Amino acid sequence: MSQSEFRARARRLRDARRLIVKVGSALLVDAKTGRLNRAWLETLADDLAEAAGRGQQLIVVSSGAIALGRRHLGLAAGRLRLEESQAAAAVGQIRLARAWQEILEERGLAVAQVLLTLEDTEVRRRYLNARATLNTLLGLGAVPVINENDTVATAEIRYGDNDRLAARVAQMASAECVVLLSDIDGLYSADPGRDPNARFLPEIREINDAVEAMASGPTSGVGSGGMTTKIAAARIAVAAGSSLCIASGRRPHPLRAILDGERCSWFLPGTTPLAMRKQWIAGTLKPRGRLAIDAGAAAALGRGKSLLPAGVVRVSGRFERGDTVSVVADGREIARGLAAYSSTDAALIAGQRSAQIESLLGYSGREELIHRDDLVMLGE
Ligand code: GLU
User: Fold this and answer.
1) Tell me: domain 3-270, CATH 3.40.1160.10, correct?
2) Ligand 1: which of 36, 60, 63, 219 to mutate, most ligand atoms within 8 Å of CB?
3) Which ligand 1 atom sits closest to the C-alpha of 66?
4) Which atom in ligand 1 lies closest to the alpha carbon of residue 96?
5) What is the pLDDT along the chain (380 residues), one digit of tens a residue?
6) Structure pTM?
7) Which residue's alpha carbon is at the smallest distance from atom 5 of ligand 1?
8) Is 67 in the pocket of ligand 1 (CB under 6 A)?
9) Domain chopping of the chain, boundaries
10) CATH architecture of the domain with residue range 278-377
11) How far apart are CA 313 and CA 331, in angstroms?
């Protein structure tokens, strides 16, 4: 595949409204000295600032806490026990966050540290909360820098690798594109270090057994992700409608390099995150409640607007924020969506203007009862 073909593929990176960039420990931390590769990080930060300048919303998933912390605690080389890696993460994370803060703020970007555990992406209520926080940060123009909360994550409830964490975050944030920056430039049919006939795979549209079999490739000594976790991440991302790219971070300005047509491997979905989400909402077997709406609101929904409390005439059923509800006009279900309020609160604000929400509920929630991104017209 030629450079211009790679450049054409890279439009997925350039056009993504939301972009996740995962940076592996092997890139961030020098294996010999255990110190941060600051000069390299500066070049990545330039690329991120460029992306932000194009109007893209960015999330960084950064490894490196354990690798940075172990040196400060004088832990010997080799495998760490769980308690040791938890201790190393506690020491390293504070340094990692500071480095990101300094480097991104110099480029005019506000940085937010977000530490997640497996439960934050797997337990629905926590997932919804984490998602709302990410949306708020992104809406305010901040760059969340995410890592696993290694200090509290025990063996059984741990991701252990940031590749899959990045893919889960992409799903949570409905990001169109994920870039896994790694010490290898993509997926090969065999380990290129050992097999001279190893083929490079520029584009993968289906993650089948043959692709899985290629995953037994290289692992570096510093991070915990090998090709296996990258393929697992690709599976999650693609299922959520996101494109995922494995690219080399072993060069300065790694994102610019992708845009300029350096080779990398793209895993491509057949759909978009928004379409996936809507399909999932429409497919809910049992909506928890019903919102009967007036003709004006029904017409507005038809024009692609959100559902405001003002257009709701009756709330029935018992539901929590984030549950799927049916939207009914003239006795017919015309749409489904995720309620931004519980049934109790929805009943209080139904028929009222959004500006009244705070005085009615005692807190200022969302302006919409169902946001249009969380709403699907049936028959759409
Ligand atoms: N969360 C780990 C750290 O920050 C890294 C996990 C990984 O290497 O993927 O050290």
Assistant:
1) yes
2) 63
3) 10
4) 4
5) 889 999 999 999 999 999 999 999 999 999 888 899 999 999 999 999 999 999 999 999 999 999 999 989 999 888 888 899 999 999 999 999 999 999 999 999 999 999 998 888 777 778 888 988 999 999 999 999 999 998 887 766 677 789 999 999 999 999 999 999 998 899 988 888 788 888 899 999 988 888 888 876 444 444 445 788 999 999 999 999 999 999 999 999 999 999 999 999 999 998 888 888 888 888 877 899 999 999 999 999 999 999 999 999 999 999 998 899 999 999 999 999 999 999 999 999 999 998 989 999 998 888 999 999 899 998 75
6) 0.82
7) 63
8) yes
9) 3-270, 278-377
10) Roll (2.30)
11) 12
